[in-house]
Design a protein that fits this description.
Radius of gyration: 15 Å
Largest sheet: 2 strands, parallel
Shape: flat
Strand content: 5-15%
Low-confidence stretches: none
Strand order of the largest sheet: 1-2
Order of helices and strands: EHHEHH
């Protein structure tokens, strides 16, 4: 369903019990470790870099998007 909608599921800073349940349900086998990050900042940086590398990414995105402080 995620692929049909061009969505990617990402987990940031999952606690041990979440990882254990994913492993027990065999979701990690289909999901893999590509969408699991130890920190939110790491996830944001990686996904931002991926989006910006796409050919259809607007070149003036940084000028038009609202400023978000973290």
């Amino acid at each position: 369903m995620l692929e049909e909608r061009s969505l990617q599921l990402v987990l940031a800073n999952p606690v041990g019990s979440v990882m254990e349940k994913l492993h027990q349900s065999e979701m990690l086998d289909s999901f893999g470790l590509n969408g699991i990050y130890l920190a939110v900042g790491e996830a944001v940086a990686d996904i931002s870099a991926l989006w910006k590398s796409k050919p259809d990414f607007p070149k003036d995105y940084n000028e038009t998007r609202p400023c978000i402080e973290t």
